[in-house]
Design a protein that fits this description.
The complex is a heterodimer of chains A (260) and B (107).
Chain A lengths: L1 H6 L3 H15 L6 H17 L3 H38 L6 H25 L4 H27 L11 H26 L4 H21 L6 H29 L12
Chain B lengths: L11 H11 L6 H12 L5 H13 L3 E3 L9 E3 L1 H24 L6
Antiparallel strand pairs in B: 1-2
The chains are: A mainly alpha (260), B mainly alpha (107).
Amino acid sequence: MIALLLRLYPARWRERYGDEFAAVLAERPIGPFDVADVLLGALDAHLHLRGLGAASQHGKGFVMSLRLGGYAAIVGSLLFLTGFLANAFDGSDDAWPTSGIILAGMLSLLIAMAGLSAYQARRHSALVWAAFLIPALGAVVASVATVLIGLFPDGDWAAPLSLWGLAMLGLVTLMAGSGLFAFASWRTGMLSRSGTALLGITGLLFIPGIIGALGTWPWEPFVSISLLATLFTFAAGWLLTGIAAVRADRPAYAPAGGAA
Amino acid sequence: METRIPELGRFAEPALLILVSLSDGPKHGYAIMTDVEAGTGRPMGPGTLYAALARLEERGLIEALPRVDRRRPYRLTALGSTVLAEQLRDLAEFAQLGLRRLGRSPG
């Protein structure tokens, strides 16, 4: 009887579920309700298998986005912070090695933003992608300018803004724009609350830093403290967001004693 | 496009019951059936169970674990957990709305 019922299903379905389905049918006597249910199930399997591929890839795509975005956020935040700290303590004239680390960090964060936005765009899609655009634009501008500085250290063809100025503008847009990313993430509720809160704080901390850097803040040490705090909260925000994303990619609970 | 249980058509209710059943740990097909029956008082047929399982797996809401004998356990993914929580919140809000309209306080 079980073999007969199984034969009603498509071969492709039987390859995947046949054994375990037969095991379920063997668990108890098969009544008329079960037979009717299996007949409907077999009909559904024939109809449903026609559209199988697209839905399967769709579900896997979200999981892949979360995983990729999480790892990229962890790597990016660590590289970004390392690059800046190394730059601050580097006494040599050659800024390229530390700039290269910062560049790698920015590109990783760009991947992180794209991956995590793709994951959480299932809710508030327009808001998520709008919030992605500004920091992503900043990362691209800063990255391109950093590469140009490395290739043409004496070049000055981005007038009226120097290449350094362009890199800084991109960097500011990336860091302050992460506050928008944080706002969108807070609305979706699909990423780490603590990580997105830190990124939101980054956007706010940047304001006194920028005002001070423009020379209008009366107390000089405050500017340095503000910029340093901005750097650390930015890196910590992305790090926490990345770690939470990678953890969320695991099963939703700790296995306790195996399957029932 | 958002992955939502209502997109599963006539398998939306069985899919929700399966997700709730898996929310406290991995289970194989027969264990899910008996758990759902115990929880709702209504039987879930094997054909319905596997039609819903296949859809949930395709959408990444559950995943299959290595087979134990002929049985294959399934577990909730992180995405499945998020979708289930959203769905349960929506249902809770809807239930509260219904109770308010009936003039009965929730809970």
